[in-house]
Design a protein that fits this description.
Layout (H helix, E strand, L loop, with lengths): L1 E5 L4 H13 L4 E6 L15 E4 L5 H10 L4 E4 L11 H22 L2 E7 L21 H19 L5 E6 L1 E3 L12 H10 L5 E3 L5 E2 L1 E3 H13 L4 E5 L5 E2 H12 L6 E3 L15 H6 L8 H11 L6 H5 L1
Parallel strand pairs: 1-2, 1-4, 2-3, 4-5, 5-6, 6-11, 7-10, 8-13
Antiparallel strand pairs: 9-12
Length: 315
């Protein structure tokens, strides 16, 4: 099999490349990335061929159609910085490019699995369900909603092609260190504590997120590849946890004591509470999260070289 992973040098993309090679060892995996937010170190030990290009250029997809053929495309590439306010750039890169990718998949008769986001829900009531509450708070969330609409309209005209959109909630895990300020709060809080700083949270740390470990996000992609389904699915744990809880777990696992520094949130588009209804993904994809927040953070810290006693995880 031949797979194309856009954004393959990024956080979720590189983890997905690793999983594809593990599950399909004879497959050929191609990574498409412009390295504007990905990092070559994520690909150092992965068997893949890299194509360096901007996915928002239509000429690229015409060239790819003439030179390659793929069985499936995993579209993870995007502007993922939710604080970017350039609406035109966000829409061109995140939304408009999906049309070119869909045309290419139709040409190849390839399955498309693309990354959507919980950002489409904004501050809608929880639990968030795929068919309602689609009121994004910023241009990033709107660009992902636009992608979902483009994909849905495409499916109405081309039911013969399988298209799956995965609405990731708050993903964290190995491979995100290069992202800096856009890395998960789990990683950012870990780094602050390790550097002897006070972990910093918006007042008063009780904002809640549906944190999902990257291993679960990757497994959802593999399930989407294996199942003969199309549609949009929430990928999360279905459980919301506070940032204060994240800090408490990090302090416990790292064996440190420190006080949180609380400060005012500077964003008017901030999501205060995300929590997914994952029943559709469970029923149609066979997806269920394998990692609780406790287990995910423990595994993550282990990958970062920390020694987390199993008794703490199980207890």
């Amino acid at each position: 099999m031949r797979f194309l992973v856009t954004g393959g040098a990024g956080f979720i993309g590189s983890n997905l490349v690793r999983a594809l090679k593990a599950h399909y060892p004879k497959s050929k995996v191609y990574v498409l990335d412009d390295f504007s937010s990905g990092h070559f170190k994520n690909l150092l030990h992965l068997e893949c061929e890299v194509i360096t290009a901007d996915l928002s250029h239509r000429e690229l997809w015409e060239w790819l159609k003439s030179k390659f053929s793929f069985d499936a495309v995993f579209h993870q590439g995007a502007i993922t910085d939710t604080t970017v306010t350039d609406q035109s750039r966000m829409m061109k890169v995140n939304a408009d490019s999906l049309r070119y990718i869909l045309e290419a998949c139709l040409h190849w008769k390839a399955k498309l699995i693309y990354a959507s986001s919980a950002g489409v829900y904004g501050n809608s009531p929880v639990p968030m369900r795929e068919e309602s509450g689609l009121v994004p708070e910023n241009i990033y969330g709107f660009s992902k909603l636009a992608m979902d609409r483009i994909a849905t309209n495409f499916l109405q005209e081309h039911a013969e092609i399988r298209v799956v959109g995965l609405r990731y909630f708050n993903v964290y895990g190995p491979g995100e260190a290069h992202k800096g300020k856009t890395a998960s709060m789990v990683y950012q809080l870990y780094r602050q504590i390790k550097q002897g700083q006070r972990p910093r949270l918006f007042k008063w740390g009780e904002q809640r997120r549906d944190f999902v470990y990257v291993e679960d996000a990757v497994r959802a992609n593999l399930l989407a590849l294996e199942r003969e389904v199309s549609g949009i699915f929430n990928i999360a744990t279905g459980v919301a946890r506070s940032f204060n809880e994240v800090v408490s777990l990090l302090k416990e696992y790292l064996g440190v004591s420190c006080q949180v520094e609380y400060f005012d949130c500077p964003y008017d588009f901030y999501q205060k509470h995300t929590q997914a209804d994952i029943s559709k993904a469970q029923k149609e994809l066979g997806y269920s999260p394998q990692y609780s927040l406790e287990e995910g953070i423990a595994d993550y810290l282990g990958s970062l070289g920390e020694d987390v006693p199993r008794t703490k995880i199980l207890g």
